[in-house]
């Protein structure tokens, strides 16, 4: 047996002997607080306990020995020692448990500390005990590139789970402080350059709504989703959160309208959208004009412009619409041109109490 193996064996025997003495002490005293100069069964137990605590805070006590000591009833590592290796390790461990990552701890000191550990490991200066402890952390990686990849995929999966698709992640999108949008953009760039490893490309392609292109491919998928939505819903105004076939359709439609208003939507796309049944470039204006048309129909039938709150013209809640316009006017939120259009309606009143008697109809026939 060589010298190194003898040393390891002797250390193991000494550890077992000291642990046995500690358990005897705890059983007899009901406490694991051993006086510094206490000896039992030929073991300097007090000095051994204090040494274990020092090694713990220095990050030199193995995880197995830590667990064994902590299994002793009443065991304590003593007061927290700020500035020690273990104190920084515990801060990083808390961050990793909460965020599932060790890439970017909130505390600058912990970020610098974790970077220093990786540097020491790369140069071969980090002892085995500390290396082993770091490897017990959730998602610890010595390779920062691999760590960033893990965090990026985790953020992408969280986003896709919440939104039903990854296609709506814009360049500025962040998930838990991680810049997901920019990370996805970099992945696409690496793929075009041929530098993205095939296994990583496969992981990305498994995300719902994933596309390597942000141009015509995205446009065609969006149009297909819109066509399906129109067939199902009978209109072309999906809400912001509608997702069809992995396409964030509500977000896609809003983006096309925004580009149209800015004059940057390609003409062939504008023409294609204009040809969709029920398409509106300005849906809020179209909705308001529907309300005004319903009010005009009400006036034609009843000779006044004061429907009660529950009044409908066909299926349209014209009474509620009128109430909303009056409220917007009172609070200064009604555009001047809309106020002028309402003012031009025969019998219009800004205050319900000013309406002539007999002009407040509760219902209106279809």
From TrEMBL:
Q: Tell me where on the tree of life, at the top rank, the source sits.
A: Bacteria
Alphabetically list the UniProt keywords: ATP-binding, Helicase, Hydrolase, Nucleotide-binding
**Which part of the chain is the Helicase-associated domain?**
12-72, 84-137, 147-208, 216-274, 284-346
In the record, what terms sit under GO molecular function? helicase activity
* InterPro entries the record matches: Helicase_assoc
Which Pfam families does UniProt cross-reference here?
HA (PF03457)
Instruction: Give the coiled coil ranges.
Output: none
What's the protein here called? Helicase
Q: Which organism is it from?
A: Mycobacteroides abscessus subsp. abscessus
């Amino acid at each position: 047996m060589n010298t190194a193996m003898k040393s390891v064996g002797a250390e193991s025997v000494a550890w077992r002997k000291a642990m046995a003495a500690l358990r005897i002490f705890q059983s007899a005293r009901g406490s694991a607080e051993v006086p510094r100069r206490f000896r039992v069964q030929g073991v300097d137990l007090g000095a051994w306990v204090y040494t274990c605590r020092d090694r713990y805070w220095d990050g030199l006590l193995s995880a197995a020995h830590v667990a064994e000591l902590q299994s002793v009833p009443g065991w304590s590592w003593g007061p927290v020692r700020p500035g020690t290796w273990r104190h920084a390790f515990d801060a990083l461990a808390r961050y990793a448990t909460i965020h599932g990552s060790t890439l970017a701890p909130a505390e600058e000191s912990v970020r610098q500390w974790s970077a220093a550990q990786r540097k020491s490991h790369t140069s071969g200066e980090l002892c085995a005990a500390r290396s082993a402890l770091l490897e017990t952390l959730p998602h610890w990686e010595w390779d920062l590139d691999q760590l960033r990849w893990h965090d990026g995929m985790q953020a992408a999966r969280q986003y896709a789970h919440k939104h039903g698709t990854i296609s709506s992640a814009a360049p500025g999108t962040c998930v838990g402080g991680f810049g997901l949008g920019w990370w996805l953009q970099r992945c696409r760039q690496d793929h075009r350059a041929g530098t993205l490893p095939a296994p990583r490309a496969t992981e990305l392609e498994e995300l719902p709504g994933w596309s390597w292109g942000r141009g015509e491919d995205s446009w065609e998928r969006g149009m297909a989703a819109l066509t399906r939505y129109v067939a199902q819903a009978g209109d072309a105004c999906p809400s912001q959160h509608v997702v069809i076939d992995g396409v964030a359709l509500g977000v896609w439609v809003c983006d096309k309208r925004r580009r149209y208003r800015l004059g940057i939507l390609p003409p062939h796309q504008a023409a294609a959208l204009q040809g969709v049944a029920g398409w509106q470039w300005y849906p809020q204006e179209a909705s308001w004009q529907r309300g005004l048309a319903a009010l005009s129909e009400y006036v034609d039938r009843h000779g006044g412009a004061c429907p009660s709150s529950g009044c409908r013209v066909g299926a349209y809640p014209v009474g509620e619409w009128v109430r909303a316009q009056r409220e917007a006017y009172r609070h200064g939120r009604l555009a001047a041109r809309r106020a002028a259009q309402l003012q031009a309606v025969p019998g219009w009143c800004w205050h319900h109490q000013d309406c002539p008697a007999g002009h407040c109809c509760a219902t209106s026939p279809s």
